[in-house]
Structures are given as structure tokens and as C-alpha cells.
Amino acid sequence: MTYRYEQLDDDVSRVFLQPEFSLYSYHNAEHTSYVVRMAEEIARREQLDDASVTLVKTAALLHDIGYVGGSEGHEERSCAWAVQHLALYGYDEADIAHVCMMIRATKMPQSPTDLMSRIVCDADLAHLGSPDYKSSAERMYREYLASGRTRSTEAWLQQQIDFIASQSYHTESARQMFESQKQQHLAHLRVEAAATEAAEAGATATAKDTHRQDPMQMLRDAALVIAGVLMASVALKDFLVPNRFFDGGVTGLSLLVHELNHWSLGILIVVFNIPAIIAAYYSAGRRFATRMLVGVLLLGVSLEVLPSFPATGDKLLVAVFGGAFLGVGIGLVMRAGAALDGIEVLALYTLRRTSFTISEIILGINIILFTIAAFAFGVETALYSILTYFTASRCIDYVVEGLQAYTGVTIISSRSEAIKHILVNNLGRGITVYKGERGFLPGSYHVSSECDIIFTVITRLELRKLQNLISDVDPKAFVFASAIKDASGGIISRRHEH
Fold first, then answer.
1. For the segment 18-27, what is each residue's pLDDT rounded down to a tens digit?
2. Residue 111 lies in domain
């Protein structure tokens, strides 16, 4: 078989001169030429025959030509180009199929099935172990930033660290050529990421110190902490303790040990929260840890000195109102930028060392607590304690998020201009507009039209008003909303920073 590879190379070079490739600072003719050179060198080291080397070079030459239609699915477009044109350059059907297989293997995560595919995949990522890695990574960063595939330098660094750490070369030749240099690049990236994180932490600490110097804010925070501590003390001394009810988290653990051993509840709460305060110092900073320490100490003192006046013996009332008072108290302290229960801090600290989520860690701890309570004090007490915990959790959410809880709203409508005007001028909200397509309905899949997809953030109380306004403009508009746990910046109201 006589391949006209040189002619193919010249013609492909002209394809890379098309205006579409000017959008890519990395996936362009320069990258393709480098991959071809590396593919040939690896193939020679792996002792492939001349015909196989040419096929490997062909796959390397064409593997990114599909970028002319965008990054998503470019491998299939590259294969389509090969199927359409390679026969003109002396490639038969079996050769073309093999070239397509090698191109598809480069799709992330790579999936090579034979030696030639492994060579092309290794050549595509040879830059990771190249002395010129820094310049190629800079070009890729600019491309990813322009296309929205990364958000910032910090995010890019972490993406590169994660990718390089998980990447392995498929051939022994590539490992000998690139692996050592790749590990050096990985080490340098980790040092750079650590330095960036430290600089950000210093800037954040400076901003927080400036914020702390506001006397009125300090007074408001102090009032919230005192009110929260008093409400939590009432919940514990007048509702939960007299009826041997429990909560979740560190508070629940303290109540359980108190009932089993009759030790001082105030001292137990302080002692059991010390590990969380230490974890908070390393996870959330000195300011948060100091405030948490003050709040926990105040709670311990109030539990020791305040008198107990059992409010009721009705178990349902104890579960509902005891949980409500406790949740409101903890929520008020959280709004002041502190905490009375360190379970979430410990979960956050543990999250960095395990594969579990924060919710899973908290759930696991609470299951253990309530299970012990069931064995020690009966299933009924454990079930009422779960109700107490649920009530407290809901009240914490309500107090922290309040009526101003934010909701993200996405709107797709044929009358998007009128809706944008309403959002900005009637509701006074900022908007973000994505360019999209609408249509693709059953029975008319091929019918579609371009449209603006509108996204905005409103408060919970504004949702009904927004829905009514949109309905007046376009009753057929597609609107969906989702809760947002936290939001800041832009023109939305800012919450207290924890």
C-alpha cells in the first residue's frame, strides 16, 4: 500500500489555517505537528514497521481536525473527515477504520485497545512530560478560559494537578521518555497551588480583620450570640434534659453522656466541642474558631448557672418546641459568624481526608447516637429525639437563610426581551443570558430555533410575583426554580459572612 502522506500533511495544514482554528490557542496546527512528531518517535521506539508508523502519524495528524466544529465531539468529526477524504490519499477501508479507532481512543478518558492506539494516546499527552510543558499549559489555559471550561488560575491549577496525577502513559517507550519530567511538573504545580491558596487565605484574613473592626457589627454579633445561647440553654434545661430527650451532633453526644453518667452538661458540651474548635481553626480560620469558643463557653456557663424550669411533660410538645428553641438559638449564633455545635466543622475537617460527603458524615454520626439512645432509653425516646433533631435542623435553616433565602430561576421563552425588561426594571434584578436553542419536541425533533436562556437570582418571597409577571407576558414560558444555599456579589442583598 502506497500512502500519499506528504500530500495529506500539506492539505491538512491548509485546513488548520481556517478562521475557526484562530479560536484555539492550544488545539491548533502547532499542537498537531508536535503530536505527529511524538507519535513517530514512540512508534519507532516500539519497532513498528513503516506502514504502521504512517497509520499512527495519520491518526495523530487528524485527531484534532474536528475542532473546526468545536471541542465537544471533535473526535467523531475527525473520524468523519478521515472517512470522507483518506481514500483520496491511498488508504483503503481497513486503514481508514484503524485510523478512526486510534482517533476515538484519544477521547478522555483515553481508551486504547491496541499498541498503535496506545502510541497515539501517549503522543497526545506527551506535553505533560515535555520540557516545554509550561508554555503549552499556558496556551491551553487561555483556550479553556476563553471557552468557559475553567474559571480562574486557581481552578486551572487544581484541574491540571488532578489530571496529571490520574494520567498514566500506555507504552513503555512513553514512560521512559516523559514520566520523570511529568512527575516534576506535577510537584511544581502542587507547590504553586499551595502558594496560591496561602496568598488567598492571607487576603481573606485581612478582609475579615477589616470587617471585624466595625463596632456596630461587633455589637450586633454579640447580641445575636447572647440571644442564641440563652435560647439554646432554655431548650436544653427546660425541655430536653428534664424529659431525657436528645439532639444530634456534639450536643446530642453531650446529652447522651450526661444521662448515662450524670456528669455536668455544661462541661461536657465545652469539652466535646474542643476538637471541633481546633478543627475550625485550621479549616475556617482563627476568627471563626475564636467566636465558636466564646459561644460554646457562654453556653456551658449558662447551663451551669441558669435555673431549670421544666416547661411540659408532653413528649410531642417537648420534641417540637424544644427542637425549635434549640434550632433558633443555634441559628442566631451562626448568623453571628460562630457555632454552638461542632458537628459540621468536624464533618468538614473529616471530608478532606475521606471520600464521604459532609451530609453522609453527619448522618453516620447521628445514626450512631440515636441507635445508642434507643438501646439505653427505649425506642420511643429515640424516635422523639429524632423529631427534636429534625425540628432543630429546620429552624436552623430558617434562621440562617430567613425570608431572604435565595432562589435561582431559569426562564426559556419566545418573548425573552420583554421578560428581561421586567426582571431588570420591575424587579430590579440582575440577569445572566445564555445563548441556546428551543424546540426538539416529540414528533418535531428537527424543528428548533435560537433563543435566550435567562437566569436570575431572587428571594423566596419574590418567586410568586415573578411567576405572575412572566405568565402575563408569555403563559407558555418554561420556568423552573432551584434553591440556592448561599449567594453573594452582584446586586443581590449580602448575607452575614461566616
1. 777 777 788 8
2. 5-197
